Amino acid sequence: MSLHSFTAIAGVRRIRSALLAAAVALTATLSSSATFADDRSWATTWMASPQPVWDHDFPLPTKLPASVTDQTFRQAVRVSVGGSRVRLVFSNTYGDRPLRIGGASIGFAGDNGAVAAGSLRKVTFSGKDDIVVPPGAPAISDPLPLTVDAQAKLVVSIYLPDKTPLTTFHWDGRQTAWFGKGNQTQSESFFATQTTDARVFLSKVMVDTPNEGTVVVIGDSITDGNGATVDADTRWTDFLAKRLTPERIAVLNAGISGGRLLRDKMGVNVAARLERDVFAQPKVRAAILLIGINDISWPGTAFAPGQARPTAEEMIAGYEQIIALAQAHNIRLVGATLTPFKGALSGTPLDDYYNPEKDALRQEINRWIRTSGAFDAVVDFDALFRDPADQSRIAPAFDSGDYLHPGDAGNRAMAEAVDLDELLGR
């Protein structure tokens, strides 16, 4: 065979090899693209709406140090729906500087801040242990293989190596959380130096699941769980999540204690957080709106001494904007009436929270919620909670003791009062 023939054969083989390599690469690329394209089944199974810390001029403590250095923060969460993979979302929404997370982990909850044996998993960000989150931004972790059942309780740990101002938090977590020195993210046990029931930076837990949709509950302290037993998961949204578990529908608590319809302070006004807390959640089918009692009652108290009480017209205009925004996003919106509050917070610095004029405004708002037809459906928590002996007061069986927030029995009754067919529009 001539030299020319050998050269020709070698050239053909090189071409074939190149074509085969290209085909393999193309197949891998297409496979990777297909995997990415099919990875569309993420759902938020738990959330805590981010809040900015407030200044010292506000009468409530933040329950947190102003900043920490070289500390781990561990907190527990109860999910709604389960899934085969998990990822976490951290929020630097109200930070004015980059937030460095030096490490993170997740596992199933044990006792007193411990992780259940054998369940601890390292959390990564683009394959790395740490991440720097820009001011105002969120950070989402890599997907982590971890089968999570519906109603499972998880613990999440983050390590904050640098001096870190705690500017983005959730004040009323109703769950014990722990600070400890050094990087304890990879330790099943936890050596705490301080506890709180506030939350820091963690805003969502997501799972990979073929769920049937999501319900978001937007509200104030009644939804956030104030009055419910700490560490017991007895908020009314927890009970609602249990009712919807068989239907594979996630329930997200977007309550902020002190939250208001029209004004900011303990969190921004409702319209300002709808995009983040509701519309950005995957597969939202419906939302429930229970808010407005703080708009009515705060003005003139130590919480808002210089503010005028809004008129019914101003509040109704605010509700109508929320309704219009929900309609524009094709989300069913259920309105909830404002609950009785005669005698609320008496014997405290806020014993002027209630007066008959404020209650008259609440009754006017409730009439509009019931009769206007503006909402897709209505749940009448006012009628549920009224004391038969005094309809401006919460019934003792439902009261937590402050004449404003329901206790555990009241929270259960609220969840049971929601008509699931009306909620989901079926």
TrEMBL record:
This is SGNH/GDSL hydrolase family protein. Coiled coil: none annotated. It comes from the Bacteria. GO terms for molecular function: hydrolase activity. Residues 1-37 form the signal peptide. It comes from Shinella oryzae. Keywords: Hydrolase, Plasmid, Signal. Pfam families: Lipase_GDSL.
